Amino acid sequence: MSTSTTRTIADILLPPEAIPVVPPRTLVKEALEKMSASKLGLACIVDDDGRLIGLFTDGDLRRLLLRSQKPLSALFADDIIDHARREFSSVRADTSIDDALNLLQEREIFDLPVLDEGGHLQGLIHLHPALRALLGE
Amino acid sequence: MIPKIIKVGGGDVAEVQIGGTLPLAFLGGPCAIETRAHALEMAERIGEVCVGLDIPWVYKSCYDKDCRSSENSFHGIGMDAGLDILAEVRSAYKIPVVSDFSDAAWAARTAETVDLLQIPAYLCRQTHVLKAAGETGKPLHVKKGQFMSPWNMKNSVRKIEATGNEQILLTDRGTFFGYNMLINDYRNFPIMLETGYPVCFDATHSVQMPTSMGNVSGGQREFIPHLVRAAAGAGINALFMEVHDNPNEALSDPNTQLDIRYLKNILAQAKAMHAARQELLEEWGEDRVHLDD
Questions:
Q1: Class of domain B24-282
Q2: H helices of chain A, where?
Q3: Is the ipTM of this complex over 0.85?
């Protein structure tokens, strides 16, 4: 088995079908349902061409709930893109696992979207599979 | 979001554009089509008022009143007879017409005649009805159900958009406030505008007291002027009112239709309030008082 220093994140990538990928006009409620079903704490918002245009995380939801004065039923009916973060960290598929882990640690985040040169979503690096790779399983 | 403009009519009849910063449009006419002669007379008289005030307008009347309180109430003149009369009104006065339908199977036939197809408030979340309306390709006038929150109208919009139809006008006609009573929440306009589609205020149904008289709906039409001025100031793109030359004898909604002798008064004020709001926004900038996220 190769070590984490020689493997790239392509080896531990969660493919798009395994993560919550939603179009921008998805209702907040629907995005939360997809996040829960996938057991991941974020939703990746992509445009019609598959480019990642926003992220919405459990932390974003927490901050939104503390800030918003809307009735919950109105908040549920908002478009997810209206509450998504437009600036986020990302990596390429040829990034090493060590570099990806360093980035997760630096930014104190659990997930890193993997994009190609055009910004299209290739998958997601999630902390736990990355740790398993680091520990050599 | 860039506000959408919907286009009603055109071709053989006047084109009425609704939305954005365009002048206020009016949708009006008798609640129900009563007779051919009455429909033509009302179209002529309402038209005179609208032309005199330079207000673009769409003639409204319905051939089937499926939501009447009682089995014994006038149910409507019927689809074929009613659409023939609407076609004649349309042709005689070169004005677009709007009528509603209560059964998905009626959508296509109704859309052959009308320029704007109306979805009744009670049916505003019925998927078959919305899809059938959307598939006609005609501009749609969707009344917000009295039971619906304004933000949940987005679901109705999305059902229509799924058919490829993006010509939608959303209307507030009051919200249930307990039993037999409606109230107007003017937050509904900016909230429904967030869909991108223009919004309309139905003044005469807003003063309705649904089935408050046992087998018929009551209403307090004395509040119409107050609600119209407030709605025009709150930010609407169109005003809807049912208008009759003898409301007390009207075959439908006798307690809420506006007597035509007051139409000019109300429309002139609505137009002025609408224009004043636009001028204020131009002078002071768009409303933005909430904290940035």
A1: alpha beta
A2: 28-38, 58-67, 72-76, 97-107, 127-134
A3: no
Instruction: Read off the CATH number of the domain in which A92 is found.
Output: 3.10.580.10
Domain boundaries defined on chain B: 24-282
Q: Which of B13, B26, B93 is nearest to B56 (CA)?
A: B26
Best of A56, A69, A79 to mutate (most B CBs within 10 Å, chain B) = A79
Rounded Cα gap, residues B96 and B58, in angstroms:
5
Alpha carbons A31 and A29: distance in angstroms, whole number: 5
| A77 has a chain B CB within 8 A of its CB | yes
As a whole number, the mean pLDDT across chain A is: 91
Nearest to B97 by CA among B55, B53, B61: B61
Residue A62's domain comprises 9-134
- A2 pLDDT band, cuts 50/70/90, is very low
Task: Provide the token pair at B212.
Answer: 């408050």
- Both tokens of A90, joined, read 């990302």
Residues B16 and B180: their CA atoms lie apart, in Å, by 35
Check CB contact under 8 Å for B293 and A27. no
Strand B218-219 with B208-209, pairing:
antiparallel
DSSP-derived pairing of the beta strands B238-244 and B25-29: parallel
- The Cα–Cα gap between B202 and B118 comes to 13
Residue B14: φ, ψ to 5°: -60, 145
* B105-156 confidence digits (pLDDT tens): 999 999 999 999 999 999 999 999 999 999 999 999 999 999 999 999 999 9
Name which of A67, A77, A83 is nearest B154 (Cβ-Cβ).
A77
What's the burial of A137, exposed, middle or buried (CB within 10 Å: 0-12/13-18/19+)?
A: exposed
